[in-house]
Specification:
The chain has 253 residues and is mostly helical. The protein is built from nine helices and two strands; from the N terminus they run ααβααβααααα. The protein has a two-stranded parallel ribbon with strand order 1-2.
Length: 253
């Protein structure tokens, strides 16, 4: 590698380092700010469980001396990352945009705009639809007044519950990035609509497996993730087809 080649490489590495430092700084500030609102975020995340009417009153417990404190830290990190996602995408765009042609920037920019919208949509689906239905399913196994034996009631650990909630919200938000990933790959020519149509059966199998891994072991939440993911896959196929058509028009223009 000549000095002329090494200089642009070092320039890109320095720029990447600076952008990573900015991301880390914004994430740290967002996490610190979120910690002061951790109690409110805790109330927001426990609301789907608190709203379910059952015979037994609901409460959270912790069995380790430091569990409540570390749980609030996890909540702050979760909220900090959630708030930093748009900034992360902006920094990625600012890093890659100078290396693209004008028509490539115009083609890829909508995917970066779409990414946070889809992330929030996936998180909202998990919070407002999947979690209430899944919690009702699991609470149906409570027997506070059994005919024989001891009662079975939920005494949820705050750390386990909030970790499950944050994992579900994050998993749905990231899973909803499928159209963005496939759309960008299609624009770069790494995948085609014909290939996506050919892989449809395998994609459905992978989606079912991913839904089973990312969600609790109940059919409701697994189906609630698998169906939207497959719809997003079909939407991605249409999106890649339109991208190919537009790319062909630009080539012949």
């Amino acid at each position: 590698m000549t000095n002329a080649d090494a200089q642009p490489l070092m320039t890109h590495l320095i720029e990447l380092r600076n952008r990573l430092l900015w991301v880390c700084g914004v994430f740290a500030v967002a996490t610190l700010a979120s910690y002061f609102y951790a109690a409110g975020i805790y109330g927001f995340l426990t609301d789907p469980l608190a709203r379910i009417n059952t015979v037994m009153p609901r409460r959270m417990i912790y069995t380790g001396l430091t569990e409540a404190f570390t749980t609030y830290l996890k909540v702050a990190l979760f909220a900090g990352f959630f708030a930093t996602v748009p900034f992360i995408l902006w920094q990625i765009w600012r890093f890659v945009a100078p290396g693209l042609y004008g028509h490539e920037r115009r083609a890829i920019l909508p995917f970066f705009v779409m990414a946070p919208v889809l992330f929030v949509a996936g998180a909202a689906l998990a919070y407002f639809f999947v979690m209430p239905m899944a919690w009702r399913f699991f609470l149906s196994f409570e027997t506070p007044q059994p005919s024989n034996g001891l009662p079975i009631v939920l005494e949820a650990r705050v750390g386990e519950y909030l970790t499950l909630c944050m994992t579900l919200i994050m998993a749905f938000g990231l899973a909803f990035q499928l159209p963005v990933i496939l759309g960008v790959l299609g624009r770069l020519g790494l995948v085609t609509a014909q290939a996506l149509a050919k892989w449809r059966k395998w994609a459905l199998l992978v989606i079912v497996v991913v839904a089973a891994v990312l969600t609790p072991p109940d059919v409701v939440s697994q189906t609630a993730l698998a169906i939207p993911l497959y719809c997003l896959y079909e939407m991605s196929l249409v999106l890649v087809k339109a991208t190919q058509r537009k790319k062909a028009e630009e080539t012949h223009a």
